[in-house]
Amino acid sequence: MSFYRSGGLTGGIYIKGIGVSSGIAIGRVFVDWKEQVEIEKEYVDDVEVELDRLNAAIEVAGQEIKDLYDDVSSRLGRDEVEMFATHGMMIEDSEFIGQIKGRIITENVNAEWAVRSVADKFIQVFEDMDDDYLKAKADDVKDVATRMCRLLLHIEGSDLSNLREKSIVVAKAFTASEIVQMNRDKVLGVVSQEGTLTSHAVIMARSWGVPAVIDVSNVLDVVETGDMIVVDGSEGVVILNPDEDTLSIYGEKQREFIDFSKKLSQMAGKSTESEDGYPIKLYANADTGRDVQGALKNGVSGIGLFRTERL
């Protein structure tokens, strides 16, 4: 775990991670101890029973994904919504589902083991790719496979849509499905013990605009629900149980960030030029179509770099 002290601040435990969505959040922790999907390989006598279980899980998972797609279609950009369209296609993919059924039949194994073992093979293929955006496709497989296994094992998934208090959510990892279903009025920030810069959950958090830090090693070993925490998504730092001085300093940083963001929004659409009147064109970098829309709305001259890997 990377503990350190920064800028003379000594009140609290500082842990370095990777900031993926700028801003500062200050609040109480909610630890998302979602039940982990533990799967053991079992040999079965009746493969037809396992195939029936699998088909039932596929049907329910498909409906859940469709409901989620319909829900997010009205409030997210096209690129983010397409992530869930991909999930819908995967649950119907003949190659993916065919390999799962084939493993049940040929190896006489339980359905959840077949799902996990086939999914792991697909995940490895994507993770071995050199392109970071293709690597992120592994997230789609993980998300869909986890959903299917939870249904097969009758395990409740994470539901962060009904948080009672405004909180900073800390978890081992988040899926894109979990991020998008969070109650935006209640979630002040997000901290993940694991994660990669190109994961779909990160893309969703950044699109949402909530301060987020990932890859915070072993944070779950030292944090509990109710602890006070500061999340600095700009610097990639979380501070556990800060003292009053630290809270005051980061409260001021938070106000400065909000004020700066407001000033930037007020400048949107205004002409850009040097002090001697020479016009300067501003171009934006974009990952998604939503980024493009936001950039153009804010008056840029064009797009300087657009990532085409996700098209």
From TrEMBL:
Recorded GO MF terms: kinase activity; metal ion binding
Protein name as it appears in the record: Phosphoenolpyruvate-protein phosphotransferase
Residue ranges of every copy of the Phosphotransferase system enzyme I N-terminal domain listed in the record: 16-136
Entry coiled-coil feature ranges: 44-71
Biological process terms in GO annotation: phosphoenolpyruvate-dependent sugar phosphotransferase system
InterPro entries: PEP-util_enz_mobile_dom, PEP-utilizing_PTS_enzyme, PEP_util_C, Phosphohistidine_dom_sf, PTS_EIN, PtsI_HPr-bd_sf, Pyrv/PenolPyrv_kinase-like_dom, Pyrv_kinase-like_dom_sf
Cofactors, names only: Mg(2+)
Record-stated family: Belongs to the PEP-utilizing enzyme family.
Domain PEP-utilising enzyme mobile: residue ranges: 164-236
All residue ranges annotated as the PEP-utilising enzyme C-terminal domain in the record: 266-311
Keywords noted in UniProt: Coiled coil, Kinase, Magnesium, Metal-binding, Transferase
